[in-house]
Amino acid sequence: MKIAIGADHGGYEMKLAIKTKLENDGYEVLDYGTHSNESVDFPDFSKQVTKAVTEEEAKLGILICGTGIGMSIAANKVKGIRAALVGDVFSAKATREHNNSNVLCLGARVTGLGLAEMIVDTWLNAEFEGDRHQKRLDKINDQ
Ligand code: RB5
Questions:
Q1: Of 50, 106, 115, 123, which shows the fewest CB atoms inside 10 Å?
Q2: Which of the listed residues 13, 38, 65 should we mutate to test ligand 1's pocket, taking the one with most ligand atoms within 8 A of CB?
Q3: Whose CA is nearest to atom 3 of ligand 1?
Q4: 3-class DSSP state for residue 73?
Q5: pTM, rounded to two decimals
Q6: Which residues are annotated as a binding site?
């Protein structure tokens, strides 16, 4: 499975760690940057990762900034993107099962790396349940 990943300077270090973990777990990772701690603008990276997901270059995307909030606001502007800012394992599972989220947002200044790795694992291994939840996603699409 291909996963697109992107971060700003606030999420750079966590991106490196999550990318390494994903590659060790057998995923192909498309890394859209940033590639240093130098200050950058998070929407430049959400734009690239969401494009990779909507154009099906990648099945899922992961975006990391300081809080995860900026990335989630930017990503959810894109039609077809359902970005979830997650800071706990329960929500990681529920947002795949109920919301079919296709982008996971993490806050590197909020969530420790150990928990972030558990969130990523849980999110990737959960499956959309469809049925009544699909009806709700259809209503989001119609808004
Ligand atoms: C960058 O300083 C910070 O604002 C950004 O990483 C993110 O937290 C925005 O929501």
A1: 115
A2: 65
A3: 66
A4: helix
A5: 0.97
A6: 8-9, 66-70, 99, 109, 132, 136
Q: What distance in Å separates the CA atoms of residue 103 and residue 111, rounded to the nearest whole number?
A: 17
What tens digit of pLDDT does each residue of 53-94 get? Answer: 999 999 999 999 999 999 999 999 999 999 999 999 999 999
Beta carbons within 10 angstroms of residue 18's beta carbon: 25
DSSP at 25: T
Domains in the chain with CATH codes = 2-141 (3.40.1400.10)
pLDDT of residue 83: 98
Ligand 1 midpoint to CA 12 (Å): 11
Q: What is the DSSP letter of 56?
A: T
Q: Residue 137 has which token pair?
A: 């996603």
Nearest to 111 by CA among 61, 64, 46: 64
Nearest to 5, CA basis, from 28, 25, 36, 37: 28
Q: Per-residue pLDDT averaged across 7-16, rounded? A: 98
The closest of 2, 32, 5, 26 to 17, measured between CA atoms, is 5
> Token pair of 96, please?
């795949």
